[in-house]
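Readers outside the structure-tokenisation community will struggle with the description of the input data as it stands. For illustration, here is how one protein appears when written out as sequence plus structure tokens:
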Amino acid sequence: MKIIGFGKTCSAVSKELAKASGFEYRNITKDDYPPLRTIEEAEKIKTDFSFDVQENEEIIFICSGDEKISGGILRTLEQIKHCKINLLYLLKDKDLLSEAIIEQQRTIFKILQNYARSGLFENILCIDEAAIKKQFIADVSMLEYEKKLSEMLAKMINMVNWLHHADPFYSEINPPNDACRIKTLGVFADSEEKLIFSLDNVRQKDVYFACTEKTLAEDINFMEKVKETLKFLKSESENLEYKIVKTDYEQDFIYLSYHTNFIQ
């Protein structure tokens, strides 16, 4: 698997995710483009994509729609269409954007979701910067912000990916319906779902219990706690899957992966 970051913030996320996962990465920024006056100019430019990717190789492609180079996202994806693309789309905080940029990033977001739902991409992970600020990194200075944002996203994405592929201690997660290629991630803590994007019309919830050996060996009420959590998260319109994985960490975590087939 390889990682591609497209744009300034997404390149920082790509770098941190590569550090956490050990995957090779390549970033594309405005430095790879000539000076641009409009987003439309980027659509006509084919960047020098010097990144060796093989047929059907898995790619994590991280992008957002707030820069002028965002017009080059589809042109870049065209060059790796022979790969299995897992798309991550970061919606930048709209309170800090002009109306024109808000509309630009929403338009790109909807286009990429439609491509994902059609099967062109393996899936699209929806990320909302405003939700991350509120739920995960509220007290951070401007100088530290981008680094903390990148580290937090990299940790969550890498952890859920590891939990998904790890051998289960108990139970296993069945994949969602093939049409459910739009998703988001989060954690369950303090009896609350904390998601990095508020996903509408959820069709499947995957719940990962990352547990210490001590919890599994000594907590006789553990399965009751699992039942209570699942009961809290379950609703009639959603399929609920869960998995318990033994970890080497010193505390327990509950990670969430939610899926839908509805355009957001």
